[in-house]
Automatic annotation (TrEMBL), chain A:
<dbReference type="InterPro" id="IPR012621">
    <property type="entry name" value="Tom7"/>
</dbReference>
<keyword id="KW-0472">Membrane</keyword>
<keyword id="KW-1133">Transmembrane helix</keyword>
<keyword id="KW-0813">Transport</keyword>
<keyword id="KW-1000">Mitochondrion outer membrane</keyword>
<dbReference type="GO" id="GO:0030150">
    <property type="term" value="P:protein import into mitochondrial matrix"/>
</dbReference>
<dbReference type="Pfam" id="PF08038">
    <property type="entry name" value="Tom7"/>
</dbReference>
<keyword id="KW-0812">Transmembrane</keyword>
<keyword id="KW-0653">Protein transport</keyword>
From TrEMBL, chain B:
<feature type="region of interest" description="Disordered">
    <location>
        <begin position="1"/>
        <end position="27"/>
    </location>
</feature>
<keyword id="KW-0472">Membrane</keyword>
<keyword id="KW-1000">Mitochondrion outer membrane</keyword>
<dbReference type="GO" id="GO:0005741">
    <property type="term" value="C:mitochondrial outer membrane"/>
</dbReference>
<dbReference type="Pfam" id="PF01459">
    <property type="entry name" value="Porin_3"/>
</dbReference>
<protein>
    <recommendedName>
        <fullName>Translocase of outer membrane 40 kDa subunit</fullName>
    </recommendedName>
</protein>
<dbReference type="GO" id="GO:0046930">
    <property type="term" value="C:pore complex"/>
</dbReference>
<dbReference type="GO" id="GO:0030150">
    <property type="term" value="P:protein import into mitochondrial matrix"/>
</dbReference>
<keyword id="KW-1134">Transmembrane beta strand</keyword>
């Protein structure tokens, strides 16, 4: 059984990871898609619903 | 573990002949295993499919998962075809049950990775990641992240599809500190060319000192031509679900679903009957259930990139009705000129 201190640290790390995924997941997919797409689309097409 | 399924021990075992040269018990055990494996190969049983997809055909025929009310617009843009990269803007309003919402989604997929993400106007993020390690091994992760405390969810799962069996393990909200969470393991095995039986274990651990384990049993019967499928699922606490799906012709599928709850304090059953017509430019679904609801959904494609949806439901017992209209617009990644360029056959040198 881990000590209280380790537990605290694990909980903090999980919380940090959760925050990173929360704000970073969509930008991450867009970045991956944008750089790997063939042909590479224009940025305005990516964001705007009407373009 | 999967090579010696306990459920197979009821089948007549292959008896290894006493080999005179066998000096150690290790080699004879290996011999038995080898004979068993080759006997199993010789049966030529098909893979039963995953437990998650047990009722896939029924779910895609019935209207329940497709119904919506109010107004809806989906604008999707496919920016790349290989690898697949798509963004979607969805708007919904005027529904009787859900609040108006805006949702932005992005999908990226290549041969072995699938990434999907969505964010709504309140900042709730949902994500999905599938990683295929080989043709038979897939790891999946799913999450739901919300700024509200206690609304976040994480699910990790791994699928292994063997020659005639499928294994899946799943963990929902596993905590690395005290191992709380929900854990599931399922095993589905083909016994004949048509019949597959399986078991699913559910282990719940909401608090470190509280655990609960339950088993549910699954059966699936597929006809030789694969044009009808019957499934049954027996869950703990007296719940039973039986489904039947049949392909009547190229364009018509029908499905029936029966859910029975026979717990000591509660007895209830719901039956649903539905049909799906796949026509050249449209898809029509109609459904009738035992709670008095009649519903229908028409999805009409006017052009390859534009479709129009109309749905309606009448609850005869409660005297209520719902209607919905929707549009789906898909803009292609390339301009028409570029499309023509792509469609031209490449001129090969003689």
């Amino acid at each position: 059984m881990p000590s209280e201190e380790t537990k605290e640290r694990i909980i903090k790390a999980v919380e940090l990871g959760r925050t990173i995924v929360h704000y970073g997941w969509i930008p991450f997919i867009i970045y991956i898609g944008y750089t790997r797409s063939n042909p590479q689309p224009s940025l305005i097409k990516l964001i705007s619903p009407l373009a | 573990m999967a090579a010696y399924p306990p459920s197979l021990s009821t089948v007549e075992p292959v008896v290894a002949p006493p080999s005179p040269s066998s000096s150690s018990s290790k080699s004879s055990a290996f011999n038995v295993f080898h004979r068993f494996a080759s006997w199993r190969n010789s049966l030529g049983l098909p893979n039963p499919g995953t437990v998650e997809n047990l009722q896939k055909e029924v779910k895609s025929t019935l209207l329940t998962n497709f119904f919506f009310d109010g107004a809806r617009a989906d604008l999707s843009k496919s920016l790349s075809v290989n690898p697949i990269f798509q963004v979607t803007h969805s708007f919904a309003l005027g529904s009787q049950t859900v609040a108006p919402s805006y949702n932005f989604g992005a999908v990226f997929a290549n041969n072995n990775v699938f990434l999907q993400g969505g964010v709504d106007h309140e900042g709730n993020v949902s994500g999905r990641l599938n990683q295929g390690w080989s043709a038979n091994n897939v790891t999946k992760a799913q999450c739901q992240l919300s700024s509200q405390v206690g609304h976040s969810m994480l699910q990790l799962e791994h699928d292994y599809q063997g020659q005639d069996y499928t294994v899946n393990i799943k963990a929902m909200n596993p905590s690395p500190v005290d191992a709380t969470g929900i854990y599931m393991a399922s095993y589905l095995q083909s016994f004949t060319k048509n019949l597959a039986l399986g078991v699913e274990m559910l282990h719940q651990r909401p608090q470190p000192e509280m655990t609960e384990t339950a088993a549910s049993y699954l059966a699936k019967y597929t006809n030789d031509d694969k044009n009808w499928i019957a499934t049954a699922q027996l869950q703990p606490a007296g719940m039973m679900q039986a489904t039947y799906w049949q392909k009547l012709s190229e364009k018509v599928d029908v499905a029936a679903d029966l859910q029975v709850i026979a717990a000591p304090g509660r007895r209830d059953a719901i039956a649903t009957l539905g049909a799906k017509y796949d026509l050249r430019m449209s898809t029509f679904r109609a459904q009738l259930d035992s709670t008095g609801k009649v519903s229908a959904l028409l999805e009409q494609r006017f052009a390859p990139s534009f479709s129009f949806l109309v749905s309606g439901e009448i609850d005869h017992f409660k005297n209520a009705a719902k209607v919905g209209v929707g549009v789906m617009i898909e803009s292609p990644s390339m301009t028409p000129e570029e499309m023509n360029m792509m469609q031209m056959p490449p001129t090969l040198p003689p």
